[in-house]
Amino acid sequence: MPELCCAGRRWQVATASNLLDALIQGGVPVPSGCRAGSCHACLVRCLEGEPHDLQPDLLRPEQRHAGWRLACQCRVEGDLSLEVFDPRRDGLAARVESLEWLGSSVLRLRVLPERPLRYRAGQHLLLWTATGVARPYSLASLPDDDPWLEFHIDCSRPGAFSDFARQLRPGDLLRLGELHGGALHYEREWAERPLLLLAAGTGLGPLWGVLRESLRQGHRGPIRLLHTCRDGHYLKEPLQALAQTHDNLQLEWIGADGRDRMLDTLRPTSRRDVALVCGSPSFIEACARRLYLAGLPRGQIFGDAFIRANRGDVP
Fold first, then answer.
1. Cβ-contact 3, 10 below 8 angstroms
2. Lowest mean pLDDT among 36-50, 122-136, 299-313
3. Quick check: 67 pLDDT over 70?
4. Is 194 strand, coil or helix?
5. Strands (DSSP E) found in 14-54
6. Is 182 helix (H, G, I), strand (E, B) or coil?
């Protein structure tokens, strides 16, 4: 049976065991969220040995060369010596710049990293608390224009990170983990094409960044943004201000009672539309299905789903 060595422990596991499960069963506290390779919370570094990686393309080549693997996507085929991602050693320190409630349940968190972070609008970043709670959030800030990194945190329900975020104060220290790309982005070649931005709840956060990126690059095609939520449209005023200065931006506000009707009537304006969707997996699936059935090619529909907690490992 293969032997694992990690965090000062040695133990045997069954061949072909999932690496994340084997580490947790061995008493190594590895955070995890999606178990699909999306959140990047379960990063481990291989010091000796190599697991069977089912999704090698989920990490950048330089990360893989440095030995990093996503434990949830690996199977144990032989002896392994590993170390778990340590935010104090491997992460980037950041100070809380400001906190502001946008409505009753959305907390806008702005942090200043100790050194500049290169990213693009719509990417995800893993946030770590001092107690080792890790949670991936989409960036709502605009690279180069905003001096801070901005996140919109849904605090409508209890959660280890959202409960922690409620207690934060300016000047508090956080650690930033893995930065990775999601599906939401803006391409220069879309400049003349219609953009359809569909957001549910705080799915508006990354689309707020992508929208501003498109306008900064001088997008000339029509942009239609629809936001559906239960507790109020928390960016309504700044979005309306943008619409007043950009004639090609159209805004639509949909309450919880109008969501099904919106989905039933959702249509692209043409087969040239590019659709960016962010929200729960069910919201993205419903939007993508409706748009595809209405004639929009799948390759022009980009969706990022919220990652929910997995057995409490990541809130």
1. yes
2. 299-313
3. yes
4. coil
5. 17-18, 43-48, 52-53
6. coil
